[in-house]
Amino acid sequence: MHASPFAANLVVPAELMASSERALPLAVLLQRSPARWQLLLAWLLSLAAGLWLAAVELYAGWYGYSVRFGELDFVISIYPPLTIATLWVLWFGYAWGASLAYLSTLLVAYLSGLPLGWALLFACSNPLGLLVLSLVYRHVKVRYVPSSLPAALFFVTICFISAVSSATGSFIWSYSNKLSAMGAFAVWQGWWSGNFLQTVLTCGPLLLLATPAVLRWREQRWPQRAAAAPAQRWVGLVAVFALCGVLGFLWLSFWLADRSVAAQVGDTAQAWQQRAMLYRDSAMAVYWVLSVLLFALVFLGYRFFRQRTLQLQQAAQSVAFERDWALQRQQEAEQAHHALQTLNRELAVRMAEVEQLQQQLQEQAQRDPLTRLYNRRYLHERLPVELQHAGHLGQSLCLVLIDLDHFKAVNDQYGHAMGDAVLKSLAALFAGRLRSADFAVRYGGEEFCLVLPGCDIAGAAACVAELQQAYAACRVAGDNGALQDLRFSAGIACYPQHGCDEEALLREADAALYQAKAAGRNCVRYRD
Ligand SMILES: Nc1nc2c(ncn2[C@@H]2O[C@H](COP(=O)(O)OP(=O)(O)OP(=O)(O)O)[C@@H](O)[C@H]2O)c(=O)[nH]1
Q1: pLDDT tens for each residue of 17-28
Q2: Nearest CA to ligand 1 atom 8
Q3: CA of 444 to the centre of ligand 1 (A)
Q4: pLDDT at 228
Q5: Terminal-residue alpha carbon distance, the chain
Q6: Percent of the chain with pLDDT over 70
Q7: Residue nearest to atom 18 of ligand 1 (CA)
Q8: What is the pLDDT of residue 33?
Q9: What is the Cα–Cα distance from 425 to 484, expressed in whole angstroms?
């Protein structure tokens, strides 16, 4: 039995392995197992660590590195809870990391004096950026561990898109803190660049170092089923999302720069100078963002078409494999068919041989070997059938017993060979003179029996008389001389008048034969 191996042939190349493991649902916390407490404890410790680090920053009054970008001073903000939340998103799923990011940001914002309403809104910014990250990694087949160059480049790209997405929070911050447009622009630039650099520089190494151990720990407690096939439409969605984000980024960059100068300085020459400088600085930022975007789109497109190409190649391979497999099966079937035909032919030959042997055996069982006449067994088989047939047709049937006269003397005088020859010559006479419906049987040593269906006594007597004449005319030659004028006596019994069965008829014919012998031989007798 051949199993189609084409399914086994569909091996996904290593580089197309599912990028992120399937998310661990929050519902695992409801399962009755010690592992849920470990997980909850780990999550709470992560939250506490993030909050503690954020609080340290808050009270130390240090939010990141100050840099000068052209004429603009801004702080590349560092926000520790973001690193922890990103790792939770990638290792355990969006819900774990997003909830952690939201709660820590909410607390930090509230502690730093933001009104609760604004804080609740503001805390959505990082989960928004993480959503982009999570969506991309769940639906594009790239490993999130940056262990190879493509994976690392993809990681940097996605971190950038995620950072730009989450930087929307900077406007809420600026607005709620009543910062000028110029200040908002600086906060925003610092937010996304800090977010981006922090994620790449802290999460990247941590993912490389700790992912195997974390996943082993997770796998032991919550073994995963096979990852679902990624939906290709998400690739397009993510690309559109990124494009919209960056186009928004460009528009905001110029709008803020323009507004800041127009609002603060007015339409003077100094204002125009400041405006030109801001445009130049923004253009630089735009240049870098566009470069990254271009790279991201090219990379995403490359990955997408590579995946599609590989899938097509695999499909073509499996079709070719399936076709070869089917051809092979067909060849095997043809070979089997030929072998079967040869066997059938051999079987037919053997069957014919067996039939021939059976016929020979049957002949041997029914014939006398010396005279080739039927034997007594045949008479017992055939006579009842002939009697039944005669009864159906209302016809008569004669049975004649023949015994050679003085045959012993032949043997004694000329030898057994001559005796055999005499027996054979009489048998030949029967074969030549009887009708096709009649048959002759060698009944005993020198005794013969004739069965003549449809024949009455007169007909039988005439037949016997002809045979006696012919026999007398026979000349049988042997080594010791030749014999002529051979004689036999006969007794006739006729169905139905002398009997209706084999035994009665044989008895009657034997009695008649006895009478013929008694009457001097070379004659025929029957009862009228
Ligand atoms: N050569 C030869 N002789 C046979 C065969 N079967 C029987 N005999 C001989 O046939 C002879 C029969 O002799 P008997 O029964 O005395 O009969 P008979 O000499 O013909 O005398 P009647 O029948 O009275 O005329 C015996 O000598 C048998 O040996 C045979 O197959 N071949």
Answers
A1: 444 456 888 888
A2: 445
A3: 9
A4: 52
A5: 81
A6: 81
A7: 406
A8: 80
A9: 11
Q: Which tokens go with 322? A: 């399936």
Does 446 contact ligand 1 (Cβ within 6 A)?
yes
CB 163: neighbour CB atoms within 10 A? 25
Q: What is the ipTM of this complex?
A: 0.97
Ligand 1 neighbour 405 (Cβ under 6 A): yes
Widest distance between CA atoms in the chain: 174
Question: Is 416 near ligand 1, meaning CB less than 6 Å away?
Answer: yes
| Cβ of 386 below 6 Å from ligand 1 | no
Place of tokens 């007398």: 472
Q: What is the mean pLDDT of residues 193-215?
A: 92
Given a cut of 90, whether residue 371 has pLDDT beyond it is: yes
CB neighbours of 458 closer than 8 A, spacing ≥ 6? Answer: none
Global pTM reads 0.48
To which H or E segment does residue 312 belong? helix 269-366
Asked if 397 and 463 count as a contact pair (C-beta separation under 8 A), the reply is no
DSSP type of residue 485: S
How far apart CA 162 and CA 203 sit, in angstroms, is 13
Q: Would the CB of 447 count as within 6 Å of ligand 1?
A: no
Query: What residue's CA is closest to ligand 1, atom 26?
Result: 408
DSSP class of 326: H
Structure confidence at residue 1 as a pLDDT band (50, 70, 90)? very low
Residue 406 Cβ < 6 Å to ligand 1: yes
Contacts 24+ apart (CB under 8 A), 239-242: 239/297, 239/300, 239/301, 241/132, 241/135, 241/161, 241/165, 242/132, 242/161, 242/293, 242/296, 242/297
Q: Does residue 127 come out as left (phi exceeding 0), alpha (psi in the -120 to 50 range) or beta?
A: alpha
Neighbours of 528 (CB within 10 A): 4
pLDDT in tens, 452-497: 999 999 999 999 999 999 999 999 988 878 898 999 999 999 999 9
